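User: Please predict the structure of the protein below. I'd like the answer in structure-token form so I can feed it into my own downstream comparison script.

Assistant: Understood. Taking the following sequence of 333 residues as input:
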Amino acid sequence: MSTRTLPAGARTALIAAAAVAPLLTNNQYLLSVAVVTLLYAYLALSWNILGGIAGQLSLGHSAYFGLGAYTSTWLFVHLGLSPWLGMWAGAAIAVVAAVVVGLSCMQLRGAYFALATIATAMVLKTLVENADSLLGGPRGMEVTLLRDAPLYFQHTRKEFYYVIALAFTAAAWLINRQILRSRFGYYLAAVRNDQEAALALGVPTMRYKMLAAMLSAGLTALGGTFYAQFVLYISPDKVFGANLGVVIAVVCIIGGRGTLWGPVIGALLLLPGEELARTVSGGLVGVDMMLYGLLLMLVIRWEPRGLMAIFDRWRERRRVARAAQPAAAEGTP
């Protein structure tokens, strides 16, 4: 079980900055970047339950994201159901999908499991693209614009979405913390570290991997609803695309998979960095994926455990330095 965490000062600064960010600027573009950053932190925390704590490398979480986005949007557009309610229907469908995927793919390991999850997202993307009359096909669906309608998950001010994204991220963080401190989390860590040994000790590995997959899928689907209401438009490429599934995983891996703060740190580094790279390059197509690839290569080369391991080393060096100071003082004549 990973105990890696941020230094107390960094945690305090991060929480304070998140709390007062909307008060620091009225720039709607900067707030949009902050909202997207929080959304990816939330998605990475959701992925972390299965891909980090349980160690099951999924690259197809866009399947659950897309199911959440399309379910709540269809219910809103065609039946008038508020996305606040429709998002739970999307989460339920995503949980069912996770059970189906888990029963058929959970016995696979490593790259084989990752490829199977990507294939799942691609199958769903193809199905949606061919559902012209029901889901709009490749054109996607537009969310009915109601402007200032908080009860229908809409508002013209980005501060509204920022507060919701912050609440989503805080909830996912608390769920991760509870899992890491519980017997459930210890079982998942045992599965991640050595599944055969866990089985030998009587841990029902399949059951706990399935539970992790279901919880991770349901939370990811809620993020899909948020995305649909934030951008007011969804399409198969945007919400089922392979790029999205890879980015969610990369954010968590770079920050430190299986840790509590790693997904948040990864999002804080990557998403503003992506916007900066896009601005500097003049909107060059593919620059965001180039950035992700470069950072991933650097992390794998220098610190495969992610950025949280750097904080570990820094904290350990400080501890050793503090311990050495009294010893040096005692040895001084």
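That's the full token string. The mean pLDDT is 87.
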